[in-house]
Amino acid sequence: MQPYRTLVRYAGTAAWLFLSSYAAAQTATPGLTTLHDFKTQDGTAPSSPIGGVILGENGALYGTSAYGGTNGTSSGTVYELLPPATGGGAWTAVTLYSFTGINGDGVRPIAGLVMGANGEIYGATTNGGTGEYGTVYEVQSPSSPGGTWTETVLHSFQGGQDGAFPYGNLVIGRNGELYGTTYQGGYIGSGSGGCLGIGCGTVFKLEPPSTPGGSWTGTILHRFTGSNGKDGQPLDGEQPLAGVIIGSHGEIYGTASGGGNECLPFNGCGVVFELQPPSQLGGAWTESILHAFNYYPADGFQPFAAVALDSGGKLYGTTYWGGTGTYCFYACGTVFELQPSSASGGAWTETILHSFADPTADGFTPIAGVIVGRNGQLYGATTAGGSATTCQTAPGQYYCGALYELTPPVQAGGVWSEKILYNFTGQFGVGDGSDPHATLVQGKDGALYGTTTGGGIYGWGTAFQF
Fold first, then answer.
1. If we measure between CA atoms, which residue out of 99, 94, 93, 141 comes closest to residue 120?
2. Number of H helices and number of E strands within the chain?
3. What gap in Å lies between CA 227 and CA 179, rounded to an integer?
4. Burial class, 282, CB count within 10 angstroms (exposed 0-12 / middle 13-18 / buried 19+)
5. pLDDT under 70 in the chain at which residues?
6. pTM, entire model
7. Sheet of 217-223, strands arranged across
8. Which of 256, 147, 247, 158 is closest to 201 using CA atoms?
């Protein structure tokens, strides 16, 4: 089974970076500017961005769209947004590569991108490839200006013992290796054949070839079991939707949307996990569950986005459901903090920093994660909620989404304060976007960049700057 149709809303990405000097030159006046309106998914242009954006040289933005493309198959694209030559001008969208879904190529790039040391771009497609379980790909810039960008499939997932359906962003290691997750796959026999029979997902590594033009080498670092600890197996997550991040000592942190503690009617409440590299070359990576979420109102549950890491070693993230908010049927989601123990090997401590509540004054159900700002603030987006009535589906129910900021307390142990920075309106044809799924990125001047999956002039999403 392909989970894309039912889980496309839950694709999250979590990475943040400081943008180049171009962003630093922009105005610091708060306000949202739509940089690009994506067009219909049946056309040739990029359409329906679900992943976020990254920034390259000279202020250009790079991202993926789940649909659109110049080959007419609407299999998705890698695109570039070029800033105007003069202030106040229009940004220009360029399709760098259109996926085909044929001859082993990928389909549906839900994940965002990551840029290598030499300007090469890496990403993942949820479907396609030789096994039809998704791919990891590289897009190289042309050798001369005006030339054609070149795509290479680095790995095609095969299901079974291999992974299946990568949704999350990749991350690059110290030696150019790529790390990521797959939503399913990894089945190797007894105890891991759940999750529709092909396994509960994986964490993988792809190592570049030792000689140019060689094949990349794939390794499965962890196969999730989805165990709730009552079946004789260690507690574990299942079905990770987001990518991973790398700590200062090479450890890997991530989330799994399910598994862990029982959470009926869901397949578990989800977990935050850590993978420690082996002490000897070729050894096994060791997984630790840093936090297993519980059912509301005691906790959030079902984390769809990756975590963010601050300079002090704390992790921050979001859950789609749970918390103390009473508006939503399963509560409206949370922002959480995980603090490591002062003792080696001790338990991490979770704190709920914010529970999303009243959707007319707050966002709710965040698919995106958070980023850590320069002064310790957290910035994020909710896929629903906000005060705009243009996305109203029923009395009092608003689903355009919002941008928010969480400011840490002055004194340790105090309450974090939330501020809604922007309420999306989603007005078709004239307004801004709606339904932001992807984690934001922040420029040196504090400007926030992101995408929405809906709204805009054509109704197929936007790229924006706040």
1. 141
2. 2, 44
3. 23
4. exposed
5. 1-30, 41-43, 71-73, 189-194, 358-360, 389, 392-398, 428-431
6. 0.90
7. 171-172, 178-182, 202-207, 217-223
8. 256
